[in-house]
């Protein structure tokens, strides 16, 4: 298991691009108390590195639903584009856990960064629930399929396949 000081040192040294040191720590294992410390770093000056590590931990199934809910709850307060992107990409891991921040996604739909806009679309579609949710999701996916952005169309195609929407 990795110690808290190793994690802190790696986050301090993280340049926002090279993730090898962060990946190594995730592979070695992060104790639950240290997962909580990573979540507590959202938002903050180390939010990009912390969100990257949390996303990697989520992808290997090392985060509980409560952990994910806490990560998603930080979304409205994140300031760094990459951190926002990491958290939005995590929604696919447990869309139910992100239900509480669905309304906070709406302003991100017009974000200056295209990838944030695309992954907001993905997260918003995945968190659709309640009466009429399937029809709403299907309509949004169809709209995405005709978007002028290639990235948006690609994400909409992936969602269409996943949710059985006939283009």
Number of distinct beta strands: 0
Outline type: elongated
Structural class: mainly alpha
Largest sheet: none
Unreliable parts: none
What is the number of helices? 10
How would you describe what is shown here?
There is one protein chain. This protein is mostly helical and 167 residues long. The protein has ten helices and no strands. It has helices spanning 4-13, 20-28, 32-40, 47-59, 65-73, 81-90, 102-105, 114-126, 133-145, 150-163. Helix 6 (81-90) packs parallel to helix 8 and helix 8 (114-126) runs parallel beside helix 10. The longest helix is centred in the last third of the chain and has 14 residues, at 150-163. The relative contact order is 0.09.
Task: Summarize the SSE layout with pairings.
Layout: H1 4-13, H2 20-28, H3 32-40, H4 47-59, H5 65-73, H6 81-90, H7 102-105, H8 114-126, H9 133-145, H10 150-163
Tag the structure with descriptive keywords.
167 residues; 10 helices; elongated
Quick summary:
This protein has 167 residues and is an all-alpha fold.
């Amino acid at each position: 298991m990795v110690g808290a000081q190793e994690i802190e040192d790696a986050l301090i040294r993280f340049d926002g691009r090279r993730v090898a040191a962060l990946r190594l720590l995730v592979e070695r294992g992060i104790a639950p108390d240290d997962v909580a410390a990573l979540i507590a770093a959202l938002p903050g000056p180390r939010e990009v590195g912390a969100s990257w590590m949390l996303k990697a931990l989520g992808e290997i199934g090392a985060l509980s639903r409560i952990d994910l809910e806490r990560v998603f709850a930080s979304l409205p307060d994140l300031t760094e584009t990459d951190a926002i992107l990491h958290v939005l990409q995590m929604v696919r891991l447990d869309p139910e856990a992100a239900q509480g921040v669905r309304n906070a996604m709406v302003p991100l739909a017009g974000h200056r960064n295209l990838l944030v806009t695309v992954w907001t679309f993905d997260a918003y579609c995945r968190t659709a629930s309640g009466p009429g949710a399937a029809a709403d999701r299907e309509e949004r996916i169809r709209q995405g399929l005709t978007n002028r952005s290639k990235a948006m169309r690609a994400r909409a195609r992936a969602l269409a396949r996943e949710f059985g929407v006939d283009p």
